[in-house]
Amino acid sequence: MDKSIFQPYEDEIRALEEEIWLLTEKYKDIRQESISFSDEDILQSTSFQRETQEETNGQESLSELKAQLESLEADLPSLMKFTGFHFTSHSKKTLERTRNRTVEKHRLSGKCHSLSFQLEFQLLEVQDNEKVSTVVSDLSIIMESGEDSNVSKFVSSTEECGDVVTFFRSLSTYAEWFEHRRRTFLHFKAKYPDIVTLPEGLGGDFIILRSPKVSGFELVIVWKIHLNEEGTTIPVLDLLPKVPEQVLENSMTSVENIPGSFRSALRLFGIEVSIENLIKVLRSEK
After folding, report:
1. Rounded distance, CA 26 to CA 16, Å?
2. How far apart are CA 276 and CA 37, in angstroms?
3. Which pTM does this prediction carry?
4. CA-CA-CA-CA torsion for 190, 192, 194, 196, nearest 10 degrees?
């Protein structure tokens, strides 16, 4: 799968969220300014008319900001639909702020397709003339499927280098494959409940096809989804036949050819068609 397909959407989502956060902060500031004057202060002021005008301008600015914020929030779901991301919460705390330097602590949680994740990190922003640089530190990631050793290694590597962008890009591809496998398993289980078995459920990495006509004859389709430390997702599929001894003695050659034939079918027809063909063979087998 081409990672570059998701890059424009990821970039736009980050840009939109940053703008939403900035507008939210401006909204809070303007709201605070608009209520900072009591009626007594205004009545006692010698420039009552000027301050009233400023308050009116502040309300107009506030309305504009609210309109922009609502527009951005309306656009965000459509972008999330393309990438599979859905952010459920975000909090930000300013730890340090000077004229040229800001340190913030962020907490972010959400889902990519069916996989949950949580991030916590510090963001250092330094402004030098017109150039702004940012550095991520103290990155901590909690991710579903973290019990998978490959996923754990990727998470550890990402935390060490503080690369949040790579995390989201890699998670998008990995979660898409994870969701594709889940939906494929669900489809065949619903369509052929008498043949298909999922010992580990929809989140497992294998599916068993049991012959309805030959007792003990099973085909185990293993579908691993590897995520290496560099963030590359590699799906690996294979077939392991489980054949009763009496059947094995009578058709040793044909049984040995099943895994190779399945791998060839994967290259030619894809995953769903290859599994469908296996099931048809099992149902017609005498």
Report:
1. 15
2. 72
3. 0.68
4. -80
Instruction: Give the helix/strand (H/E) hosting 229.
Output: none
Cβ atoms 6, 169 nearer than 8 A: yes
Which tokens belong to 95?
Answer: 């730890």
> Which residue stretches of the chain have pLDDT < 50?
33-48
CA dihedral sign of residues 135, 137, 140, 145:
positive
Q: For residues 104 and 93, give the distance between their C-alpha atoms in angstroms, rounded to a whole number.
A: 6
Q: What is the structure's pLDDT at 146?
A: 52
Q: Which pLDDT belongs to residue 64?
A: 73
- Partner residues linked to 86 by β-bridges: 111
Amino acid 45: pLDDT:
47
Determine the angle formed by the axes of helices 258-269 and 271-284, rounding to 10 degrees: 140
User: For residues 226-235, b (16+ Cβ closer than 10 Å) or e, as one string?
Assistant: bbeeebebee
Q: What percentage of the chain has pLDDT greater than the value 90?
A: 36
| Distance (Å, whole) CA 77 – CA 72 | 10
